[in-house]
Each structure stands twice: as structure tokens, then as C-alpha cells.
Write a structure and sequence with these properties.
This is DRAM1 protein. It is found in: Endomembrane system. It is a multi-pass membrane protein. Belongs to the DRAM/TMEM150 family. Keywords: Membrane, Transmembrane, Transmembrane helix. The chain is mainly alpha-helical. It has one domain. The chain is built from 7 helices and no strands. Helix 4 runs antiparallel to helix 5, helix 4 packs across helix 6 and helix 5 packs antiparallel against helix 6. The radius of gyration is 18 Å and the shape is elongated. The protein starts with 9 loop residues before the first helix and ends with a helix.
């Protein structure tokens, strides 16, 4: 199916499907192995212990690479469209690309440095990945509006902006609740101290992560 897509639409399609599989496979293995509770663990919790840690690290690193390729193609696409329409400054397009690449580096850090092994480095990588990702999709939503109606429909722009707003709203409590947790662990139970903070923060984390996935899903039509 991916090979039959016109243009380079297979790139964001592969990114979306691969990243979704990375989250779901790691979660399934971690739950079946009894390493995490099935009720909303952190994404990183599902990739901390072997064997899921190896799968998580490998698949997330590939996702980061696919994200780099997707963002660069998106950059080239906007530059080409901008030659005739002049709807956005080239510096804004470059800035958006740089922010996106920072997020990909953060993903690589998260995949390489496990949560329990090097928690401080892992947390910095996660903050860079999610923070840069939220800024990137917000900038891309604004650029999409500027390219209307020649290069985008307002419907697609509304979808992208809605995803960006939801991700931004979820990102803030994710950080706030996570900062209230006084211990680093992955096997949480409801009766433990700070469980509520962990639970709410994890919900927000999954919301932001799948917000990124649904956002890149909207690139498929453009990449055709």
C-alpha cells in the first residue's frame, strides 16, 4: 500500500505507522511481562526493561530518523511553494525545521538513555522532544494557514491547529504533574504516593505523543 502512494506520501505514512507500532508493541510486551501496570504507564515505562527496552530503543530511533526525513521534505515543499506564492518568510521555514530537528534529537536521547539507567539525561531528552514537537506542529499549523487557499484547504488547517492546541494544552500539565512526582519508578499501583500525579501526567504524555502522530498523518495529502 505504501509503495502505491504517489509522490513521497509514503514517508509520513511510514512514520505514522512505524511510530504507532513502536508505542503499541512496547506497551503490549511490557504489560504481558508484568513490568508495568496496564492502566496508562508513561511511554518510557514501556521501554525500560528487557526485552521491550531493545525493541523500544530500536523503533524509536527509526521513528526519529523518519521524522527528520519527513520534516526536511516538508521544508523543501514549503520552499518550492513559496517561490511563486511568497506566503511565508524563508527564515520562518528554516526556524521551524531547526525546532523539529531538535525534537528528533530529543527522541534519540529518550530511545538511547533508559528512564531508570540515566534518569536525568532521559528526562532532558523527553522535555526537548515534547517541547520542540509542540512548537514545531504549532508553527506548521500557522504556515498552513498562510498557504491557504492555494496550497491547503481550510479544513486541513483547522484540523492541524486543533491538534496543535490540544497538544499544547496537554503538554503543560504533563510537565507540571511530572514535576510533583518525588520518585523514579515504573511499576506504579493506585495506592502509592504520587500515583495521581503520575497517572494524570501519563495521560497528557500519551495525548501529546499521539497528537504528533495524527498531525503527521495530515501531511500525506501534501506529500502526494
Amino acid at each position: 500500500m505504501l509503495c502505491c502512494m504517489p509522490g513521497v506520501a509514503f514517508v509520513p505514512a511510514l512514520l505514522v505507522s512505524w511510530s504507532s507500532a513502536a508505542f503499541i508493541i512496547s506497551y503490549a510486551i511490557a504489560v504481558l511481562a508484568g513490568h508495568v501496570e496496564p492502566l496508562v504507564p508513561y511511554i518510557s515505562d514501556t521501554g525500560t526493561k528487557p526485552p521491550e527496552s531493545g525493541i523500544f530503543g530500536f523503533m524509536i530511533n527509526i521513528s526519529a530518523l523518519l521524522a527528520v526525513i519527513t520534516m526536511y521534505i516538508r521544508y523543501l515543499l514549503i520552499e518550492k511553494q513559496n517561490e511563486s506564492s511568497h506566503f511565508v518568510r524563508s527564515s520562518c521555514n528554516v526556524f521551524s525545521l531547526c525546532i523539529g530537528l531538535m525534537g528528533c534529537i530529543g527522541m534519540g536521547i529518550v530511545a538511547t538513555f533508559q528512564e531508570l539507567a540515566v534518569p536525568s539525561v532521559h528526562d532532558i531528552g523527553a522535555l526537548v522532544a515534547f517541547g520542540s514537537g509542540v512548537v514545531y506542529i504549532t508553527l506548521q499549523s500557522i504556515i498552513s494557514y498562510k498557504s491557504c487557499p492555494q496550497w491547503n484547504t481550510y479544513f486541513v488547517c483547522h484540523i492541524r491547529m486543533a491538534i496543535s492546541v490540544i497538544s499544547c494544552i496537554a503538554f503543560i500539565p504533563m510537565i507540571v504533574f511530572a514535576s510533583q512526582i518525588s520518585m523514579t519508578k515504573i511499576d506504579w499501583t493506585p495506592d502509592e504516593k504520587d500515583y495521581t500525579y503520575h497517572f494524570l501526567s501519563a495521560i497528557c504524555e500519551w495525548t501529546v505523543a499521539f497528537g504528533f502522530i495524527f498531525f503527521f498523518l495530515t501531511f500525506i495529502r501534501d506529500f502526494q
